[in-house]
Write a structure and sequence with these properties.
single chain; 264 residues; Jelly Rolls; Thrombin, subunit H; 2 domains; 6-stranded antiparallel beta sheet; 0% helix; elongated
Length: 264
C-alpha cells in the first residue's frame, strides 16, 4: 500500500459546556487503512471509527460538527462518508436495519425455531412479494410492526425465500442466536445508509472544502440530523471509497474536525 506522507492536523474534539474538551484522539479502528504520523492521519480506503467515544448524548443539546477535507493530491477521485457510529447504553451498535420497518409486513412464526437454526417458516404478510431477497428484506423477531419495538436487535438477513400457499420458508444468512416459539410476532425490515451528517457519499476534490452540520433531537427514523432512538454514545466514523472503474488508490485528507455542544 502506498503511504501518503502529507501533513494533517487532526483536531477531533468535543467542546463541552463550561469549556471542557473531549478529544477523540488520533487512534482509529482498524489501523490497516488509517495512517498516523506525528501530527497527521490519512485514510486510504475502507471504514474506520475512533477508538474513543463521545458519551452522554443529550437529544436536547445542539451538536455542531465541522471539518475541512480534500482528496489526497495525486490520488484517484474519492467518495467519502463522514459522520457517527452510534451505540446504545449496552455498547451495541445501532444499525439502520434495526429501525427501518417495512409497512404492512407483520407476520407470525408458524413453527418454533431453535438457536443455531437457519430455517424459519412464517405466515405471508400483506406486503410480501417474490423479490424480498433482492430488495434486501430482513426478518425482525418479536415485533408486531409497531414503532415501540424500535430499535429491534433481533434482525436477521435473508439468503433465500420461497412460498408455498400460506407458508413462507426463509433461509437465513446466519444462524439464529436464540430460541423462538411458534406464534412469535415477526415483521420485515430493510437496511439503509448510516448517519453521515457531514458527507454522505459525495465525491471529494483535491481542493479544500469546509463541511458543517448540526445534529439535535431524537428520531426513530434513521437520518443525518437527529440522533437515533436509544443512542447513548457515538464514535467518529470515516469511510473512503474509490470511484468505480478506476485503478490505483484513493485517499482522504481531513483536518479541523470538531463538535461543539450548545443549548437549543
Amino acid at each position: 500500500m502506498k503511504h501518503y506522507m502529507l501533513s494533517l492536523i487532526c483536531m477531533t474534539s468535543i467542546m463541552l459546556s463550561g469549556g471542557e474538551i473531549f478529544d477523540f484522539g488520533k487512534k482509529f479502528i482498524p489501523h490497516n487503512n488509517f495512517i498516523e504520523q506525528d501530527s497527521s492521519a490519512i485514510i486510504t480506503s475502507g471504514l474506520v471509527i475512533s477508538a474513543k467515544r463521545l458519551t452522554g448524548i443529550d437529544a436536547d443539546k445542539v451538536y455542531t460538527v465541522s471539518c475541512r477535507v480534500r482528496a489526497v493530491p495525486g490520488a484517484n477521485k474519492t467518495t467519502a462518508y463522514i459522520g457517527f457510529q452510534q451505540f446504545d447504553e449496552a455498547g451495541r451498535s445501532l444499525l439502520p436495519e434495526y429501525y427501518r420497518l417495512i409497512p404492512d409486513s407483520q407476520a407470525k412464526l408458524l413453527k418454533s425455531a431453535v438457536a443455531g437454526s437457519l430455517k424459519l417458516e412464517v405466515s405471508p404478510p400483506k406486503a410480501y412479494h417474490s423479490k424480498i431477497v433482492s430488495f434486501g428484506w430482513q426478518i425482525a423477531m418479536d415485533s408486531d410492526g409497531g414503532n415501540e419495538t424500535l430499535p429491534n436487535f433481533n434482525v436477521s438477513r435473508i439468503k433465500e425465500a420461497t412460498r408455498s400457499g400460506d407458508v413462507i420458508t426463509l433461509t437465513l444468512q446466519e444462524p439464529l442466536r436464540e430460541d423462538w416459539s411458534a406464534g412469535t410476532p415477526v415483521c420485515f425490515h430493510t437496511s439503509g445508509p448510516g448517519m453521515y451528517p457531514l458527507l454522505n457519499g459525495k465525491e471529494v476534490s483535491s481542493e479544500w472544502m469546509v463541511l458543517t452540520a448540526k445534529v439535535t433531537g431524537c428520531s426513530i427514523v434513521p437520518g443525518v440530523d437527529k440522533w437515533w432512538r436509544d443512542a447513548a454514545s457515538a464514535a467518529l466514523l470515516l469511510s473512503v471509497k474509490s470511484i468505480p472503474g478506476q485503478k490505483g488508490e484513493s485517499g482522504l485528507e481531513i483536518t479541523d474536525i470538531k463538535v461543539e455542544i450548545s443549548d437549543k
